[in-house]
């Protein structure tokens, strides 16, 4: 005889099924994370524990080559250095590359804050710039490297002269750099494999999004360049600073726009 208040066999089976369905995704995720940790540690130990492994100095150089502290001020300096009028197209590329780097920094920072995956326990000698650097997923170096590579390749394909002049060498160069820089994150013990894979995929998506949706027209890049350089010259001549709206009005009146 069924005890009063006790669940029926059908209700018990239903509750067991619900428990299994809710635990299954978590269990699978834990298995993937555990496998990721094991593979990452195996790769790290293999590289560091054998004479044939890639030297740490080389890995550190690759790490520095993908550092945002190098790329963000570097793109600004390069944008200003391209001073000749025929270089307006390269200036546009560098300007939007800078915009994309800021976009990448925002996306990666948000995801790291949201997911908060700790870095590998064997990660040593890493200088943390901001608090988000404590977190591992996704890899900012990998996303940055693959964003730069994909964005530059898309810009390169748009210009027939660049393709005819440089050919496939540019693709090989940026692809090789992005791959080895991303791989160095695992070999140095900075990230797990899945961090790098996710970062690389995200970087490619960012490159496509920035190129097709977030790129500013060449005119914007040129006006900002002229305004910045013009104010630098005005300071040298001890003339007052010219705000950007006033500069645009003066430029429109002089060009008849």
TrEMBL record:
Coiled-coil ranges per UniProt: none
Record keywords: Membrane, Transmembrane, Transmembrane helix
Database matches in Gene3D superfamilies: Phosphatidic acid phosphatase type 2/haloperoxidase (1.20.144.10)
Stretch list, region Disordered: 1-22
Transmembrane segments annotated in the record for this chain: 70-87, 94-115, 166-186, 192-214
Molecular function GO labels: sphingosine-1-phosphate phosphatase activity
Keyword set includes Repeat: no
Pfam family, one: PAP2
InterPro entries assigned to the protein according to its UniProt record, in alphabetical order: PAP2/HPO, PAP2/HPO_sf
Keyword Transmembrane tagged: yes
Domain Phosphatidic acid phosphatase type 2/haloperoxidase: residue ranges: 92-211
Composition bias type Basic and acidic residues, residue spans: 1-17
PANTHER family (alphabetical): AT30094P (PTHR14969:SF13), SPHINGOSINE-1-PHOSPHATE PHOSPHOHYDROLASE (PTHR14969)
Name this protein carries in UniProt: Phosphatidic acid phosphatase type 2/haloperoxidase domain-containing protein
